[in-house]
Prior knowledge:
Number of helices: 3
Largest sheet: 3 strands, antiparallel
Shape: globular
Strand content: 5-15%
Strand order of the largest sheet: 1-3-2
Structural class: alpha+beta
Amino acid sequence: xKYGSEAEAARxxxxxSRSAHVxxxxxxxGPSGAAAWLSENGAEHGLCQIYGNEPWHYxxxxxxxAHGCPSMYADPTHDPRMQQ
Length: 84
């Protein structure tokens, strides 16, 4: 592969069949000020950072409004939804 292995790519890019973006349940936020605001306030709106290596990626987690955001995965390869 020209840009590395498929396993390395999986740390950064989900296939369309597994992407929360495709289902409308994820958004990538920029600039960094917006992501910083969401980091502090997102849970009260049901938006959580899911991956430690993607500070711009937030997903809809309605339960976070009452219970806070779940622990983050280090990267998408640790997310059970991304397992093949």
